[in-house]
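Sequence in, structure out. Go.
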Amino acid sequence: MKADETTDHSANEFTPPPPYTKQEKSSDANHNTIKPIPELKGTPSNERIEWIVILRAFACMAIIVIHIIDCYVAYIQYIDFHKYGVVRSVINEIILQPLIRFAVPCFIMISGTLLLDPKRNTTINKIIKYIIKIIILFVVLWLGYCFAHDLTFNSLRNFENLKKWIYQSFLKFFNGLMQGNLYTFAPWLWYLPMLISLYILTPILRKFTEFADRKTARCVLIILFVTTCIIPTINNYFNFEIVPVTELSSVVFMYLVGYYITNTDFINSKLIYIGGVVGVIFYLIGCYFGVSHPLDVFMVLESMMILKVFLSHKIKIKNNSFFNCIAKYSLGIYATNIFWLHVLKVAKIHFTLLPIFIGEFMVFAFTLVMSLLTSMILYRLPLIKKLFTK
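Output:
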């Protein structure tokens, strides 16, 4: 050993390199690891993150506007297109679309932010409770909207045949569950089964985010992005059918990318902003030609940019109790806003009676306020309070 220590250094170029030291090994390993963002690393699961509260509130209000356009405006167009007019059509179906369609992807990404962080205390028992709550909510909402539909449009004009209707509705529900066509009366309820699927996959995805290194995560995200965002967009824009993909796969991508954007330094910020701007422009073009899809690649890119903006700037609003309230009751608002739009349709109250923008705003304000009040009342009922506030 002493001879080795006294060997001339000029001969070292012919000898094999020495083995890595522990420090060198750790530096190489760190190069392939994903660094967490300090602000969110290990945030307790019950701790409020203010920018997420604000984003959730904005997304909840955007959901109401989406439902107004998809459900209420479509009804107005059908019965009175002359009064509805071309200008309203351009505003609602082209200009507004890039401003509101971020809502669903952002909700999914927020869920990934909060549930996929291995450092947060999200146990399997908590996830099972979430799943049970969403299943109960889904069944109740489906039966409720089915009842409202039959009461308004079909033969259920009195309560004499209510028992028969209940039996037939449960039978219709389970038949629809087996055949995959549950959304005849309430197509907007697709979000709840999707949420259940994500919660079922959450324990597996949490292990992935805990142990996957940079290369593995990059490969998985690129594959998911191409197969679930780019290919479906090409299929939709050019009437191709390259690869059949499921909507759940695209949702899993958004779920994962929400975690990686907000909890790590993994995805380059400049790429997110450039992709977001490109997404807004091309989504607007797609709306103009009528080929856009709510979850196509351009809207996903825009939603990633919005999430990054809220994270980077830690957006806050002074005296934001109103936004806190909307965020707190966002699930209830989602569950009840369609009911109040249905009330407007049955009452034949048309926003086209008012000037442009004023009529739309009045419908939005009415739906938001009534949905919020309904949610606040429902959340005070003992059974619902026990299910959804604990």
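Check: Residues 106 and 307 are 7 Å apart (CA to CA). DSSP finds 17 helices and no strands in the chain.
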